[in-house]
Amino acid sequence: MNNVFVFDHPLIQHKLALIRDENTGSKEFRELVEELSLLMAYEVTRNLPLEEVEVKTPVGPAKVRMISGKKLGIVPILRAGLGMVNGMLKLIPAAKVGHIGLYRDPDTLQPVEYYCKLPSDVSERELIILDPMLATGGSAAKAVEVLKSKGATNIKLMCLIAAPEGIEAVHKEHPDVEIYTAAIDEKLNSHGYIVPGLGDAGDRLFGTK
Ligand code: PRP
Ligand code: URA
Q1: Per the residue annotation, which of 65, 108, 121, 208 is the catalytic one?
Q2: Helix ranges restricted to H, 97-179
Q3: Is residue 42 within 6 Å of ligand 2 at its C-beta?
Q4: Is 109 in contact with 166 (CB distance < 8 Å)?
Q5: Ligand 1 center to residue 57 CA distance, Å?
Q6: Residue 144: pLDDT above 90?
Q7: From the candidates 20, 24, 79, 203, which is the catalytic residue?
């Protein structure tokens, strides 16, 4: 699949297995989602451009490489994307954080937007949308549409579990968006839930039902 990257690192797969387990409670679920996000941030930022600079060590000058002034932004989709923010910020603390509030109408499965607050300079930033679940793809496609309408041109999507239907839907509308995920599952069920998935990510993170 073009523009889809599945992380097969053992630590990522192990932690993903733990969050799928229905016996994993909210506290552990939250901790694991944060750890997964940190590990995935490491991979997602692999291609950031470097520039050569000079620093002075106690022994003398050294030519070293540092990230070259790339402006990053992370954009969690509320609610469940919030669980991925701290892990990302641990690795890229200078990233700005925007928020897009979307929920899926349970009958139509269409995304309903209820909140949007973004950094003013999104058009200059490399943006990473965060949402643990890519199911029908409606929410992610809508989030990309919102960011593009504000001038963003460089957008990635990072999720934990994707359904084939969601990947196809996002890429049909936004083929330029790279999708990073820890797993591509089998399918959606008749309620639009990912099978086997992990259930409702927001409810499992925040202990709601
Ligand atoms: C979940 C999830 C995604 C969306 C994925 O959110 O966090 O945002 O569903 O489904 P889709 O790909 O079919 O759009 P939900 O609508 O349950 O809202 P919540 O995070 O507030 O619980
Ligand atoms: N949203 C979730 O939280 N889980 C799914 O499986 C699908 C949508």
Answers
A1: 108
A2: 138-149, 164-173
A3: no
A4: no
A5: 49
A6: yes
A7: 203
